[in-house]
């Protein structure tokens, strides 16, 4: 850009003072300053927009690279799963063929138990409102641990000697 030193700015100011005059010079200087500020903001906005577009393009390139890498990983996992599934099915078929053919050996009943379905899941009957602890109740009673809360007056009445009321 144009390089203005102190001597050039002083020369421009002296010429402006002579040409414009001392009455109008402050207003013109404010106007020129405002225009310079707008020009600088415009240039800064253009630079920021260019930087954003460059970053966006880089991000899109990285996104496409990650997508291709993810697709490659997905394909390799899918092929490995298929090969493992085929090997597993082959082993199951070999075992079933061995179990079906070995009825005389006494192993035929194992094949029948493998094919029977497991019983249906039943949720355990938990009484979740009851507070349960790991310490047994008899131990708590022996150690004197309170099992329920009592008010202060009820506790005093409970432990008051029988003759006093």
Q: How would you describe this protein?
A:
The chain has 165 residues and is mainly α. The protein has a domain at 6-99. It is built from five helices and no strands. The protein has helices at 6-20, 25-101, 108-115, 137-143, 152-159. The longest helix is centred in the middle third of the chain and has 77 residues, at 25-101. The model has no long low-confidence stretch (mean pLDDT 83).
Mean pLDDT: 83
* Percent strand: under 5%
Low-confidence stretches: none
Instruction: Tell me the overall shape.
Output: flat
Approximate helicity band:
55-70%
Number of strands: 0
What's the structural blueprint in terms of helices and strands?
Blueprint: H1 6-20, H2 25-101, H3 108-115, H4 137-143, H5 152-159
Describe what is shown at a glance.
By secondary structure, this protein is mostly helical. It is built from five helices and no strands.
Characteristics:
mainly alpha, flat
